Amino acid sequence: WSKMSEQIGWVGCALTVTMRESNLEVLRGDAVTLPCSFFTSSPLTKLNVIWTLAPFSSPENPIQVIVYDHGQMMEDPSFIGRVGFTGVPWSADIILNDTREADAGVYRCMVNNPPETADLGIGELTLTVLSRPSLPVCQWEGDIAEGGSVTLSCSVEEGIPTPEIEWDKLSPEEIPLPVNMDGDPSGSVQIVNVSSETSGLYRCSASNALGTEHCYVNLSIYTPDSPSGILQGVMLTLSMSLVLLAMILLVTWLHRTGQDGRWRERKEDEESYNEIRYTPSLIKRSFV
Ligand SMILES: *[C@@H]1O[C@H](CO)[C@@H](O)[C@H](O)[C@H]1NC(C)=O
Ligand SMILES: *[C@@H]1O[C@H](CO)[C@@H](O)[C@H](O)[C@H]1NC(C)=O
Ligand SMILES: *[C@@H]1O[C@H](CO)[C@@H](O)[C@H](O)[C@H]1NC(C)=O
C-alpha cells in the first residue's frame, strides 16, 4: 500500500479522514463497528491512530479508547478485551463488543501519519447505546386514612431512550391516571382526598421502543366508618356489656352470700355470749 501510494504520488496532499457514519445506534450488549477511513500519501510505518470518547455521562472527561502507534496497541481499562481495530493499518475502523450504556457518547478518530503535514485528520461520530427499561421501583407515601392524600411514585434506573412512565389503576376497575412528569424524574401521581374507592391495585409501566416493565402498588385506604368497622364496634360493645352484666351478677351474688355468712356468725356469737353471760349466774347460783 505504501509503495503504491508513493508510486501514485499522493505527496503534497494532506491526510484526510472520512467518517462513513455520523450517528450510530447499538443495542446494549451487541457489537458495533465504528468506521473511520483515511487517505494518506506517506508510508504507513509511522501511522498513529487515536480513538477518544467523550461519554454522555461525563463529556468533560474524554478517554482514549484505543491507540495504534507504530504497530503497537493500547486500550483504556474500561475497554480492554472489548475493542479492536478491524483493518489496521489500512483502515482505522474499530469494533466494540459487548457494548455498555457508558460507551455512549461522541467518538473522535484522529489519524496522524508523519512526515505528512502536521494537519491532524479528525473525524467524529455519535454512538447511542439503546437499552430496555430496567425493572421500575413503585413506592407510595402519604396518609392512607380517609380524606388524606397519597403520592404514588415510579422510578426506573435504566433505559435508553428514556422510558415513559404510565400509571393505571387495575382493580376493582381499570382506569388510567394522570402522571405528573414535569420536573419529576420519577413519574408520580398524587391522589387527594382518598376514600374507600381509592383502594385497589395500581400498576406503573415504564416503556420505551425496546420494551416495557411493570411494578405494582396495592393500596388499602383506612376508613373508620366502613360497614365492617361499625359491625366490629357493635360486636365489641355487645360482648363488653355481656361481660359487665356477668360481673355485676357475680358481685351481687358474692355480696349476698357473704352477708348471710356474717349474719349467721354474729347470731352464733350472740348465743355463745348469752351462754357465757348466763354461766356465771348459774355458777353463782350453784354456789349459793
Ligand atoms: C468481538 O467479537 C467478535 C465475535 O464474537 C470476535 O470475533 C472479535 O474477536 C471480538 N473482538 C474483540 C476486540 O474482542
Ligand atoms: C372529599 O370527598 C368527600 C366524598 O368522597 C366529599 O364529600 C368531600 O367534600 C371531599 N373533600 C374535599 C376537601 O374535597
Ligand atoms: C391487595 O390487598 C388486599 C387487602 O389487603 C388483598 O385482599 C388483595 O388480595 C391484595 N391484592 C393483591 C393483588 O395483592
TrEMBL record:
InterPro entries found in the cross-reference section: Ig-like_dom, Ig-like_dom_sf, Ig-like_fold, Ig_sub, Ig_sub2, Ig_V-set, IGSF11
Domain Ig-like: 15-128, 133-220
Gene3D superfamilies from the UniProt entry: Immunoglobulins
Pfam families listed in its UniProt record: Ig_3, V-set
SUPFAM superfamilies to which the protein is assigned, alphabetical: Immunoglobulin
Superkingdom, taxonomy of origin: Eukaryota
Keywords: Membrane, Transmembrane, Transmembrane helix
Parts of the chain that traverse the membrane: 230-254
Protein name as it appears in the record: Ig-like domain-containing protein
